[in-house]
Write a structure and sequence with these properties.
about 375 residues, Ribosomal Protein S5, domain 2, Alpha-Beta Plaits, five-stranded mixed β-sheet, four-stranded antiparallel β-sheet, 12 strands, about 40% helix, binds adenosine-5'-diphosphate, binds magnesium ion
Length: about 375
């Protein structure tokens, strides 16, 4: 685990009562579809956020993270949450949502330690929310199933923190594992685990370009989708099919291209699910490649560093497909490589990336 190694006892003067954890996630395919009511196909990554927690008397919450420089303990009082306190907003958001849903909480001390890189498109934010919610569920006996727990995390982030995220990240952190893809219909929340074919393994590399300041761009994309859905007379872009794309292309620029991405990306998720079931590795790879082109050209959420990483990955003989994963504007790539080749592929890609961009990429999967 990264960063400050101080123990819970050293920080708060007593032992933790509860321990919980939750993983980051990588999305195989289905990007910017979740807030349009569409399909996604994420997996858990081995990196996770761990939480130690102890209820305390009174209504004060004291929170600390090993991942932040400075090592300060931040605090607030339950019922007096105020937005604008940086990372603490994610913690405050969770207690606001739980209280709003009628769950009885007392104060608590909490320590976070994560090896999910922050701001790299691998959802450290959902890992924090889901790990905290799991810890609180256990500490207070909260009646929350794993889906309700994920939705509480999503509302904390979208409603309180103010990041306009869909439901994929928290559902993935709450429900996914690292060996199968979790096919989610974000409208109905129906979900199913589909194993990766044994012939392939995942490669995940972060670009070292943080998407930390991408909130505004993300918001613009969301607004464009809502405007396009309005103009096309549907509730959400999910309600369109590929046959509607020509009509959408008559909308004012860039709305047609935004629609084309979302509608065809939804179709690609369904095709990817079929390819997974058939064990069709080349088919799966081609879908990842097409998804990347669509994110780059139609949805315009890639950056040159990510395009470089994708190109370098695809130039590898053992890579069947590669794409930007996560919201974009930086972040990470996911590639599918022939089983057994992932570590070598990742090392060569990161080396070439450093030479060409001067940036330090980081291999998250396979874990060294
Ligand atoms: P991502 O979810 O892709 O990593 P986000 O911008 O959604 O990126 O979330 C990153 C933010 O979440 C960080 O800037 C920080 O405020 C908060 N965060 C996530 N994990 C931790 C952690 N372990 N400790 C402190 N803050 C965290
Ligand atoms: Mg996030």
């Amino acid at each position: 685990m990264a960063g400050d190694a101080r123990t819970f006892e050293a920080l708060f003067g007593s032992a933790p009562a509860v321990r919980a954890r939750a993983p980051g996630r990588v999305n195989l395919i289905g990007e910017h579809t979740d807030y349009n009511g569409g399909y996604v196909l994420p997996m858990a990554i081995p990196q996770e956020t761990r939480v130690e927690l102890a209820p305390r008397d009174g209504r004060e919450v004291r929170a600390w993270s090993a991942n932040l420089p400075g090592g300060r303990i931040d605090s607030y009082v339950l019922g007096e949450e105020r937005r604008g306190r940086g990372w603490l907003d994610y913690v405050q958001g969770v207690t606001v949502v739980l209280a709003g849903d009628g769950h009885a909480l007392r104060g608590f001390d909490v320590a976070f330690r994560s090896d999910v890189p922050l701001g790299s498109g691998l959802s450290s934010s959902a890992a924090l929310e889901v790990s905290l919610l799991r810890g609180l569920r256990e500490a207070y006996g909260l009646r929350l199933d794993d889906v309700a727990l994920a939705l509480a995390g999503q509302r904390a982030e979208a409603g309180f923190v103010g990041a306009p995220v869909g439901v994929m990240d928290q559902l993935a952190s709450s429900l996914a594992d690292a060996r199968s893809a979790l096919f989610i219909d974000t409208r109905t929340l129906a979900h199913e685990r589909i194993p990766l074919p044994p012939a392939v393994e995942l490669v995940v590399i972060s670009s070292g370009v943080s998407h930390a300041h991408a909130g505004g761009d993300y918001r613009v994309r969301r607004a464009e989708c809502e405007r396009a859905a309005d103009l096309l007379g549907v509730n959400q872009l999910r309600d369109l099919s590929p046959a509607d794309v020509p009509r959408a292309m008559s909308l004012p620029e860039p709305l047609g291209r935004r629609v084309r991405h979302v509608v065809l990306e939804n179709a690609r998720v369904l095709e990817a699910v079929e390819a997974l079931r058939r064990g069709d590795v080349p088919g799966l790879g081609a879908l990842l490649d097409a998804s990347h082109a669509s994110q780059r050209d139609d949805y315009e959420v890639s950056v040159p560093e990510i395009d470089l990483l994708v190109d370098l990955a695809r130039a590898e003989r053992d890579v069947v497909g590669a794409r930007l994963t996560g919201g974009g504007f930086g972040g990470s790539i996911v590639a599918l490589a022939r089983a057994g080749s992932g570590a070598g592929v990742a090392a060569r890609v990161v080396e070439a990336y450093a030479r060409r961009s001067g940036r330090a990429g980081r291999v998250l999967v396979p874990r060294g």
